[in-house]
Amino acid sequence: MAIQIPPNCDLTLGLVCVEKSTPGTTVWTMTVDDRFLNPAGIVQGGFLAAMLDSSMGASAVTGAGDRKVYVANTEMKVSFLRPAHLGDVLTCTATVLKPGSVISFLQGRIVNDRAELVATASSSYLIRERQE
């Protein structure tokens, strides 16, 4: 099975990876547009969770080192700390806290362009070898 990079979910959200030079850590950005707003005019939490999931998934892959792997989120806890608004530029930093051969533990943090913490997450990712 061929892997599409970037995946459609990242393209839909407008996610851009801006840093991946440190194994186990990636940094992503997206600009909030009106497609992501709920009726109250703020970003719907599911889109923030998707940003965290994509970012942490990428970090889990880079944290696997030279191994060719697939990763799957097995659980995620998200805390929403302040609203994100139309036009905000969001930055998500995702880091492997504890790498594993089968399960890796990660955290993610989203800040807005005013350096205010918007959301955090912790997650476990299942790591599986990929056959080329």
The CATH top-level class label: Alpha Beta
CATH architecture: Roll
Largest sheet: 6 strands, antiparallel
- Low-pLDDT residue spans: none
Q: CATH-wise, what's the superfamily?
A: Hotdog Thioesterase
Query: What is the subunit organization of this protein?
Result: single chain
- Helix vs. strand class: alpha+beta
Q: Overall pLDDT, averaged? A: 93
> What is the helix content?
10-25%
H-E string? HEEHEEEE
Widest sheet, order of strands: 1-2-4-5-6-3
Number of helical elements: 2
Q: Looking at the structure, what is the overall shape?
A: globular
Beta-strand percent range: 35-45%
Number of domains: 1
Number of strands: 6
Alpha carbon gyration radius = 15 Å
CATH topology: Thiol Ester Dehydrase, Chain A
Distance between the termini: 9 Å
Describe this structure in words.
A six-stranded antiparallel β-sheet has the order 1-2-4-5-6-3. The chain has one domain (8-129): Hotdog Thioesterase (Thiol Ester Dehydrase, Chain A), CATH 3.10.129. It starts with 7 loop residues before the first helix and ends with a strand. The chain has helices at 8-13, 45-62; strands spanning 16-19, 25-31, 69-80, 89-98, 103-111, 117-129. The chain has two helices and six strands. By secondary structure, the chain is an alpha+beta fold. Helices cover 18% and strands 42% of the residues. Strand 5 (103-111) and strand 6 form a beta hairpin. The model has no long low-confidence stretch (mean pLDDT 93). The longest helix is centred in the middle third of the chain and has 18 residues, at 45-62.
